[in-house]
């Protein structure tokens, strides 16, 4: 039978720092601070802002940091998916930023089923979708980014993570 429990009973003996994805370096520390202590596996982080402010650049840099891991955790696959740019355009941005992560994968698609099908064999530590309004589920009517598609996308991403 479920009953309310005190917070300290729930967290007793639980190392919360150990279940966050480490983000080393100055940039990683700043992102961790903004996210309240780091990236929690299974979480969904939505980054918004005006066009041209650097959201894609920020997310590519974050994807690189997560894929490189830390001293305690080795590198892991991370997939950066774009519905707006080709993988060559993303690679060009990565080159300008001197990103050389060996486990950073790039993919260009707007079909969420296709994306999930292609990334499953990689078993990625993280998935970055740029931009979420460009992807769609074929099972739902309407174009990418509309209210019905948005509701379906939320459910799909929560199940996936």
TrEMBL record:
PANTHER family: DNA REPAIR PROTEIN RADA, DNA REPAIR PROTEIN RADA-LIKE PROTEIN. It comes from Aegilops tauschii subsp. strangulata. InterPro entries: P-loop_NTPase, RecA_ATP-bd. PROSITE patterns: RECA_2. GO terms for molecular function: ATP binding; ATP-dependent DNA damage sensor activity; DNA binding. Residues 20-161 form the RecA family profile domain. It comes from the Eukaryota. This is RecA family profile 1 domain-containing protein. One of its GO terms (biological process) is recombinational repair.
